Amino acid sequence: MISVLVLLCRTETPEQIIDELYGPRTAFIPKMPSLGLLLEEPIYESYNNRVATTINAKLEPSHPDYRPPITFEPSREAINVFKQKYIYDNMRLVEDRDGLFDSWMRHLDAYSGTDLLYLNLKGIIPPQAIIKKNERRENPFREKKRFDATSFSVDDDAAKAVGDEDEEELSLSKKDFADTEG
Predict the structure, then answer these.
(1) From the CB of residue 117, how many other CB atoms can be counted at a distance below 10 Å?
(2) Does residue 2 contact residue 37 with C-beta atoms inside 8 Å?
(3) Distance between CA atoms of 148 and 154, rounded to whole angstroms?
(4) Which of 49, 125, 157, 167 has the greatest number of CB atoms lying within 10 Å of its CB?
């Protein structure tokens, strides 16, 4: 759904389309490249509140069953240094080198089928963009495997191994092809 947010902003599609996309009709939503998608920090506020009002309410902090609240504040500085060095710097390096996000955007821009027609100024899903089970679609959107990668090496040899699928079509059996069509 992150891709929908990006595409809504980019195409000036009204935000009410999000409710329609979660509705009973099925529409194709492209996957955004995983590079740059990051869970900044797990939040344990609900857990901490529940433990404080149930288990810890009857216990002293010295009791063996007492559960201290989960917090990352004591390690905040080390966490930030780690994220900068091993996550943010690597993401920037890979994007600068491979242009993955830009390539994904250009891939979406080049698509000429009907799967993404819901990206419109009216904020409605037109009938042509609705995916019907067991019905073959004319010119379905094809996602590239390179946008699904979840780890990226910083050396050039690994980047070449991912390859570019612009001209390459995967050979699928009739059954596999039908499964991908919905």
Answers:
(1) 16
(2) yes
(3) 17
(4) 125
The C-alpha angle with vertex 164 and arms to 97 and 30, in degrees rounded to 5, equals 90
Alpha carbons within 13 angstroms on the beta-carbon side of residue 120 total 13
Q: Cα separation of 182 and 28, whole Å?
A: 10
**In this structure, are residues 2 and 34 in contact, taking their beta carbons and an 8 Å threshold?**
no
User: Which residues partner with 130 through β-bridges?
Assistant: 27
Per-residue pLDDT of 85-138, as tens digits, reads 988 998 899 889 988 889 999 999 999 999 999 999 998 999 999 988 888 888
Q: Distance between CA 29 and CA 32 in Å, rounded?
A: 9
Region for 139 from its dihedrals, namely left if φ exceeds 0, alpha if ψ lies in -120 to 50, beta otherwise: left
